Amino acid sequence: MIENIIGSKTKIRILPIVLAAENFSIRQVSIDSGVAYSVCHKDIGEFVEAGFVLERENGFGTNKNHKDYKKITALFDLNEKKSLSSKKKKELKKLISVLLEQKTAAILVHHNADPDAIGSAIALSRGLFQKGIKTDIFAPAGISRQSANILKKYPYPILKALEKEYSTYIVVDVSSKEQLGDFKIPVGAKLAVIDHHEKGNLEETAFAVLKDMTAHATATIVWKILDELNTKITKEISFFLLCAIVADTAFFRIADKKDIEIITKLLEYTELHEIFSSLTVQEDISSRIAKIKSFKRMDSYRIGDVVVAFSRTGSFESQIALALVRSAADIAIVVNTKNNDIRISARMRHDLKNKTDLVEILKTAESPIGGSVGGHKLAASANGKNPKCVLDVKNRILQKLEESFKNKAKPLN
Ligand SMILES: [Mn+2]
Q1: I want to staple 356 with a disulfide (CB 3.0 to 4.6 A). Which of 226, 270, 390, 404 is the partner?
Q2: Where are the alpha helices (DSSP H) in 78-184?
Q3: CA 117 / ligand 1 centre spacing (Å)
Q4: Could you tell me if 347 and 227 lie in one domain?
Q5: Using one digit for the tens of pLDDT, what is the confidence trace for 72-109?
Q6: Higher pLDDT, 21 or 100
Q7: Rounded to the nearest whole angstrom, what is the distance from the C-alpha of residue 221 to the centroid of ligand 1?
Q8: Is 179 found in the same domain as 30?
Q9: How far is the CA of 197 from the centre of ligand 1 (A)?
Q10: Do the beta carbons of residue 316 and residue 287 sit within 8 Å?
Q11: Cα 129 to ligand 1 centre (Å)
């Protein structure tokens, strides 16, 4: 059975795969390769017309004598065991040839760089160093607390400012200029992109782009690059790549077979518990104290089967509401009246999302606080100017919740 592929470019690209794996139907191949396909059977005629495909007695066959056969099959090689696609290999070649010439480059990461950005950048930097290419890593708009934590385990210089101009910049885990803070890539410098986000404006001017939007972490692309370059994986490289992949797959929650395969290889050098402990950041003491104080001021109600907690704080209201919902409350409302205004943060357990809507509930507070509500069903907030209405707001919210859950609120004393 042959089912056809949308778009002539795609057709040409998918064809070598069919050529190389005649056991597959085009549909199966397109599913395996992630290329979009249609089921418009008659379009196989276009392949036949172009002479790529020959009609045979028992169906369709590939024309290995076609003059473009080699050229096309070079684009895709199913039997090639290396990790990168041939398109990315070409991009990598461009990048490496420039780097080998310049011997130096800057690696840039995004604003509040997370472990995937930092881990990918360091692993890449270390890998390139094995090839005689020296790179500096620059975080123009800071790094996250989690990243700071992984750097405690393996210190690595992350520059806060660049003292010189480089002729080549490699942006890692970034797709748009806006994510680089105030930093501007100097005019005339060469730019390369290694990333897994949606296409952004950085690609427009890049001379080499290694991008895979289906990758869960930029680090998996970096791993493939290092594999392609026959880099020696050290304990340090494996540590940073693992931190990156574990963090960006939300601790394996969204990891797939490909991620696990890479992780398995990297685990030859590093224990998983080291990664977990490095990615676990002890919460700031000020937010922990704010939580404890707020818990003491809490009062709570039972409305039918729903437990509602109210509290007040001078800061961290959304974190406190989240902490309450994560422990025992179904709904938590936390009010901050510190700076002569009022901020209300509301959180709800996920499984109640079809029962009520926190944006609707908080709307009842809009007129007394003289402000407005934003957010969504499960996490909403309200900001206003009148901090004296806290009690009124609480009663209004409670009444709304009683209506919503068709039950009386009973205080939990
Ligand atoms: Mn990422």
Answers
A1: 404
A2: 86-102, 115-130, 145-153
A3: 6
A4: no
A5: 555 554 434 457 888 899 999 999 999 999 999 999 99
A6: 100
A7: 10
A8: no
A9: 7
A10: yes
A11: 23
- pLDDT at residue 214 tops 80: yes
271 shares a domain with 180: yes
Pairing of strands 379-384, 342-348: antiparallel
Length of the chain: 413
DSSP strand pairing (306-313 vs 342-348) = unpaired
Ligand 1: centre distance to CA 280 (Å) = 18
Give the C-alpha separation, 158 to 180, whole Å: 14
pLDDT tens per residue across span 238-278:
999 999 999 999 999 999 999 999 999 999 999 999 999 99
The range of the structural domain enclosing residue 383 comes to: 285-411
Domain count, the chain: 3
Whole-number pLDDT of residue 21: 53
Mean local confidence (pLDDT), 350-366: 93
Q: What is the dihedral of CA 157, 162, 166, 169, to 10 degrees?
A: 70
C-alpha 248 to ligand 1 mean position (Å)? 6
Query: CA 303, CA 356: separation in Å to the nearest integer?
Result: 13
CA of 29 to the centre of ligand 1 (A): 28
Distance (angstroms) between ligand 1 centre and the Cα of 374 equals 27
Q: What is the CA(247)–ligand 1 centre distance, in A? A: 9
**Do 272 and 297 fall into the same domain?**
no
Please give the distance, rounded to the nearest whole angstrom, from the Cα atom of residue 362 to the centre of ligand 1.
Answer: 34
Residue 112 alpha carbon to ligand 1 centre in Å: 12
Q: Report CA dihedral (395, 396, 398, 400) to the nearest 10 degrees.
A: 160
